[in-house]
Design brief:
21% strand; 15 strands; 3 domains; single chain; alpha/beta; 334 residues; six-stranded parallel sheet; Rossmann fold; 12 helices
Length: 334
């Protein structure tokens, strides 16, 4: 049994006594990671407490990442560090080189004041719903890259609304509901092309190659189309780079790295000089793109800054709506 001293002379709620007792036993080494702690019913019976009182204490300990629960088995110590102020759930769509950069920046910024746990939904609604359902009440903050599905909002609404933050995607859908650090896909592509219109004007035709019509991809198409309407250049939008004849003087904006690989090979086979005969802009910066074909020009949100901005918002207890910086790295390909 876990001994708890309740001092009725102090104006401290009883649930706080439970929290303090667990923290103290961790501090002196009486509890270790993996140890089982008393059930709700056991504490209620031992100390004559209401179930709501014990549940309030355990929910706070769960939110801070100190304990966890397993259905049918009970409550267990998850983390021996009791000084963390934040225990953050991160729900990402998938692991990529640039999402890893985002995660590393977030982790570095928050590590002294909190812990984090990351899950990936892989754009699968069932997986997304399972992650959210299993997370309710277990974290101090919930940082979500939402899936593009009508039912996603219903899932997110199960979480404590003041503890939810939207990351990277979902600016349009969630901007009036939750704080966010997101890409503004429509205006990002429009503004970056406008700022670099002198480079765009080197070419006779510009083609956006975008593989599907996810919500944020539609926003990219809108921003691209708006730019092209205002500038005297032929423009096309295609789902596949192989779907039309490539001509000298073409410039491509590609989202998928497979299309980038095809264009680089094509330029070599046809002896077309990148940045002169054929232009390429690739979405999302990676170290490899700085090396391939003497350097591929990239446009990319600043993923490291995105991670840092989200961590800072949590650490400073702010509720902001931040459009993340969008950058062009100019190299030989454009």
């Amino acid at each position: 049994m876990m001994n708890i001293h309740f001092n009725d002379n102090l104006s401290i709620p009883k649930y706080r006594h439970i929290i303090d007792a667990v923290k103290q036993k961790l501090k002196v080494g009486e509890l270790k990671k993996g140890d089982k702690i008393p059930s709700l019913n056991m504490l209620c019976k031992q100390y004559g407490l209401s179930q709501d009182t014990v549940l309030m204490a355990y929910n706070e300990l769960k939110a801070k990442g100190i304990i966890t629960s397993q259905v049918g088995k009970g409550y267990f110590i998850q983390n021996e560090n009791t000084t963390y102020k934040h225990n953050v759930l991160l729900v990402f769509d998938k692991l990529t080189a640039y999402k890893e950069e985002l995660y590393d920046a977030f982790k570095e910024a928050i590590q002294e004041d909190g812990s984090e746990q990351i899950f990936f939904h892989n754009n699968n609604l069932g997986m997304f719903q399972t992650i959210i359902d299993g997370a309710v009440g277990n974290y101090s903050q919930y940082v979500i890259m939402p899936i593009n599905h009508p039912d996603a909002m219903d899932s997110i609404s199960k979480l404590p609304p003041k503890k939810v933050f939207i990351l990277d995607q979902g600016r349009k859908q969630y901007r009036n509901i939750y704080p966010f650090v997101c890409q503004d896909f429509e205006n990002d592509i429009y503004n970056i092309l406008k700022e670099n219109s002198s480079l765009v004007n080197k070419y006779l035709r510009i083609i956006l190659v975008i593989p599907n019509q996810k919500s944020h991809f539609k926003d990219i198409v809108t921003g691209f189309t708006n730019f092209c309407k205002q500038h005297p250049i032929d423009a096309e939008v295609a789902g596949d780079v192989k779907s039309f004849e490539i001509r000298k003087g073409d410039a491509f904006v590609v989202v998928d790295d497979r299309d980038l690989g095809f264009l680089v090979r094509y330029s070599i086979e046809k002896k077309m000089a990148l940045g002169v005969d054929l232009g390429i802009i690739s979405y999302n910066e990676t170290p490899l793109k700085g090396i391939v074909a003497s350097g591929i020009t990239t446009i990319s949100t600043d993923f490291a800054q995105m991670g840092k901005s989200m961590a800072d918002m949590i650490l400073e207890n702010k509720k902001l709506k931040i459009d993340n910086p969008f950058l062009m790295l100019k190299r030989a390909s454009f």
